[in-house]
Amino acid sequence: MSESLTGGDVVRDASKGALFVLFLVTMIDMIGFGIVIPFLTYLVEDLTPAGQTANIGLWVGLLMTSYSAAQFLFSPFWGSISDRIGRRPVLMVGLVGNTVFFTMFGLANTLVIAFIARFLAGVFNGNIAVARAYIGDVSTPQQLATRMGIIGAAFGLGFTFGPFIGGELSDPASRWEWFVGTIFETHPYLLPCLVASILSIFSLIIAFRSLPESLPLESRTQKESIPWLTNMAHIMKNSVSMLKAPSVSLVIWVSMLFTFGFTIMHAVFILYTEMSPENGGLAFSEADNGRVFAMIGITGILTQGVLIGPLTRRLGSRTLIPIASLLTGIGLFLIPYTQAENAWLHVLVVSVIIALGNGIFQPSSSSFLTRVAKANGYELGVVMGAQESLGAFARILGPLTGGLVWTLTASREWPLDYHTVFHLCGLMMLCAALLSFKLPYLDLNEAPGAKEES
């Protein structure tokens, strides 16, 4: 790791090997989030005691929420620890946690154990902020944007490969004879979890050999760590203050509504697709669902890698935000109207619509928020931190809401039946789109600090 001077500060430049390790750490984090999506509903059904099947939707929501909640609660803790002892050990502890708790989840034989394992996996995966801090330590201002793109690419790939791995390797004993009579028959979702654990071990070995410490001793804080409650109170205070800030608050509210509606779908999509056609579902397997989410991931990568640049230059981020919200809302609303005889054609079309909308919304909203914050003189770190915190809150609330609404409505008669939760997703996207029409118009050529147009 070399050092260079920029603005009077010493920047320890990262090797390609170090950046590759950070890429792996982030990608494995997203694999850990996505790998359970295809089989989580089936695992909950297997572990649900007889007579309690009405609570399946709620348990699916709880298990999905637990991971995001743990990440939200423990990210400040890991960030504070890394400021004191360095980034490298914290990142390696996270990889060890991945290895242990992915395997624990695959071996779970009760819903409580599955919940504990999922929560602890989220605790040890709360170190994405540390990976970003590492990149900040080793990058000049000119390098920062490009290198932060590593995190974005890892997110996209992880969310694509995670569900695909989870779906293709679920219940192997029913697909390959050599797994019959083994532990993989009694624990049908252990194999994908073991693969995730092996990936973590692989990354841990590479990190041990190739990831130098980015934070020199003289730069580490010697202060006592801030108590957790004080830290969380500070985060909440900043978030609330940004929700009251003119212009900035509108963008954050739009992002929260979008995230809330989108993550509701995460909890209920497979609850719908695994239902029998007689009940309105598609009778999809774990592998089928994994392929659907892989399609969404691939479309999202192509959208952000190929389409977003030309679209932004032609229309601008402000115009793209309501378009993306409406597009995503249409896709989510149409999910439960799939006909079993044409299931794959319909699912393909709906998945592409959803992925296009999400792939356009995420970079557009972040870009527009950055420009609004600069144009109005807000500290960018505070604004982006508030957006991340409130987005995490929406990711926690979304799956839990989806599971609860499904539990209350799925077995009822139309209009309050299994369609209801997807209608709710579409409604949230419509609210996001309508609110986004109130976003300020900014001159595309204005410099940071310029005023909004009246």
Can you describe this structure?
With 454 residues, the chain is mainly α. The chain has helices at residues 16-34, 40-47, 56-85, 87-107, 111-124, 128-137, 141-168, 183-186, 190-210, 228-243, 248-273, 286-315, 317-334, 343-375, 380-409, 420-436, and strands spanning 3-6, 9-12. The protein has a two-stranded antiparallel ribbon. Helix 1 packs antiparallel against helix 6. The longest helix has 33 residues, at 343-375.
Category by helix and strand content: mainly alpha
Poorly predicted tracts of residues: 4-11, 444-454
Q: Strand count, sense and closure of the main sheet?
A: 2 strands, antiparallel
How many domain modules? 2
CATH architecture heading of the largest domain: Up-down Bundle
The tally of strands reads: 2
CATH class of the largest domain: Mainly Alpha
Determine the CATH superfamily of the largest domain: MFS general substrate transporter like domains
| Order of strands, widest sheet | 1-2
Terminal residue distance? 49 Å
Q: Which series of helices and strands comes N to C?
A: EEHHHHHHHHHHHHHHHH
The global form is globular
**Helical segment count:** 16
Strand content: under 5%
What Rg, in angstroms, do the CA atoms define?
22 Å
